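sorry to bug you again but im stuck and you know this stuff better than me. theres a chain ive been looking at and ive put its sequence and its fold in token form underneath. id like you to explain what the token line says about the fold, in plain words if possible. anything you notice is useful, everything is just below.
___
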Amino acid sequence: MTETTPYDADRARFTRQALARLVLCDHAVDVADGAAGLVATGNDPDTGPGGRVSQAFQLIELAERALVSAVIYERERGSSWTEIAQYLGIGPAEAEARFAANLDGWNSAFEVPYRLDDSGRKRIPQLPTAAYDPAWACGRLDTWARNRLVLVNDQRPVSSGLVMTVPEEELPSGTP
């Protein structure tokens, strides 16, 4: 499929490393927000028996998704399987085998950024939303970080550190 999407130009301004970092940020927000839901006790009576276990278990699933995103990001920034594996407590070959399908999916999504649904009319992005529409993701993640990270004194705490294809000083003002 060679049709363009409204997000192609925005996405082209970001390196694959930056896109992978945005996805990791997005998944980290999901973990943080999920964990925050376990902190307050006021709604405990509203959850059924085992409800908090369900929430905690969902955190594991969200953390696994964040881990996959972290591995993809580390590979995009040039980390070796040996470097990644040391933090996982496994061997490099095992780490590569564990995440091979995820990396294949990431790589193929750049070749075919969307697929058509069963009706053949609606495009379904193959990249995670934060990578497919990075301008939106930057705005949302910068706002999230400004509102929740107490010691951060940066108007663009997420987007300012991304590796872009175009140097920031060449972007129009107001662009992430």
